[in-house]
Please model this.
Amino acid sequence: MTQDEVLNIFRETGALLEGHFVLTSGFHSPHYFQCAKVLQYPEYLSVFSGIIARYFEDNEIDVVISPAVGGIVLGTEIGRILNVRTVFAERENGKLTLRRGFELKKSENVLAVEDVVTTGGSVFELIEIVKQHEAVLSGVGFIIDRSNGKVNFGCKQISLAKFDVVKFAENEIPEWLGKIPVYKPGSRLAGNKI
Model:
């Protein structure tokens, strides 16, 4: 599947939004990827998960970890395809942590999965969890790379589409974007105008 095909699926399903958005990273952007809107369709969930799973099929993966909420659906499906255990990390006091009795065992081979990466913050937090448990990071898989290839997790990684999304710091918002009502659609806040 080509990058253009992936992006067209996002457009067709209404998962590539245009407006004025505050991203999870805190940056402002005229574009937002709402992966939940595309992953609600089993055929796209299967296709995207299958591509990522095949990329890591020669690695010995013992467990897939993803961040709540965005990465859970994708991580679970990739774990099912690889026939391995899947866990997710949740925010507690602003920091990703394993809860619900989830654990990573020492020396387990872990695949980190996320839906969209902009700065890589959530994935770097997952990597820290892997290190804290003395497990082994085997790789990182994600659908959309909003950094356009700039984020490097220091391991084998795959994204299905790279997208150079324009983003602005709070104090650098251009006038044209500032005229559009601000919307914070991310999973940390359940999509609110601000």
Remarks:
- The chain has one domain: 3-193.
- Residues 187-194 have pLDDT under 50 and may be disordered.
